[in-house]
Write a structure and sequence with these properties.
The protein is of the alpha/beta class. The chain has a single domain, classed as Metallo-beta-lactamase, Chain A (4-Layer Sandwich), CATH 3.60.15.10. The chain contains nine helices and 14 strands. The strands form two sheets. It has a seven-stranded mixed β-sheet. Helix 8 packs parallel to helix 9. The structure holds zinc ion (2 copies). One zinc ion binds next to helix 2.
Length: 257
Amino acid sequence: MKFASLGSGSEGNSLLISATSENRSGVVMLDCGFSVKEAERRLARLDVLPAEIAGIVVTHEHGDHIRGVFKFARRYGTPVWLSYGTYQAAEADSRGADIHFCRDDEPFHIAGLTLQPYTVPHDAREPLQYCLSSEGCKLGVLTDVGHKTDRILSALSACDALVLEWNHDSEMLSNSSYPFSLKRRIGGSHGHLSNAVAADILREVDKSRLKLVIAAHLSQQNNRPSLVEDLMAEVLGGKLIDIEIACQYQGFGWKEI
Ligand SMILES: [Zn+2]
Ligand SMILES: [Zn+2]
């Protein structure tokens, strides 16, 4: 399988995943936090036609994940998968879209990929994150989560690649000019992952198959790529595991696992 990002961060997120086997029949888009026009522009950069998107899978209703989902779905007739709670939170925007429901721990299939949803603590109605697999290869995705849980560690075990949130450095967040309420939300148990907790997850998860880790959803104000790279390298020690940082503007190009 292969995957790429249209962009990652609080201004918009979207990940593309495609099976590379014979039976593939399109590309799965995980979130579309960009306007349709912007998504089209970014898809072109990755050589993907909008009509090739076989389904849009949504993690939760925050704008940086759902902004373009239903407009894109209506324009191109793309089916959408999301939890019932996310649907309820976004119902008014979803009219006319081809909606399918998914829930924690109930796998489903799109375009030759198996998607395994798992629940996470985040301040949304019914947020889900996903592992995607095809022919024995597994990609684990985790962003928008406030703290580490056993469920997260077991969901992300034995992945070939991880896209993992490293949102903020706790000290930079507490020294930032953000209002106190926003600092409390981001740093809270249902906010976003600090570098230290992301490092704990990476340290504790089963890495027996891991070849690539991509740091995602970095705060542009309260984090620095060099801090994340140093921590990732420290956790991974001398292991032959590639590391990369997803960018808000460029995302990252196709990775094959
Ligand atoms: Zn987000
Ligand atoms: Zn969120």
